[in-house]
Write a structure and sequence with these properties.
Length: 218
Amino acid sequence: MKVIIAGSTGMVGRLILEQCIASDKVTQIITLVRRKHSDTIHPKVNEVQIADFTNYSDHADLFQNVDAAFFCIGVYTGQVNDDLFKTITVDYSVELAKAVHEHSKNARYCLLSGAGADRTEKSRTSFARYKGMSENQIAELGLSFHSFRPAYIYPVTKRKEPNAMYRISRMMYPLIKLFGNNMSIKSTELAQAMFQVGIQGTDLEILENKDILEIISQ
């Protein structure tokens, strides 16, 4: 199988990349990056620098015969201004989906969305509104589309947390976990589920946190 990963250096994207490398089913991996990364060198991996994640007109050859694509690019709320947040959340994800669908009609497209994504696009919260907007526009393309809506993602590998809320959430994770399958998920569990759906498929278009956990328990 041939897969494409956008966001392979992020918390979840890196774990999906590791799953693809380890899998006998995946023979070719294209990672779309802004800068070259020496730590992703592997015979299966073709790392391609992309200057503009809203324009793939010069890279049509990359999207031929793709079986699965994973979109894991994202920024945390408040890290960038609203216009850029919308561009990254909506435009980046939709344009990649268009490029995949144009050249590989049967490819599965796995989107890392988020809990609370609002497909009415009326939420006052930018995160919910733009995630819903992204899901709507991709769904309209008619490709095999799966949107993952995790709740709090617990980073299995320690990292520098982006803000105070995430530092607190990490410390509170043992308590958060007690509230059940709707409230949290480990980064490794999310990556495993996304990889599994990308390779094998599922009947679900929207996977809430509990659905994601059920995927890997089957």
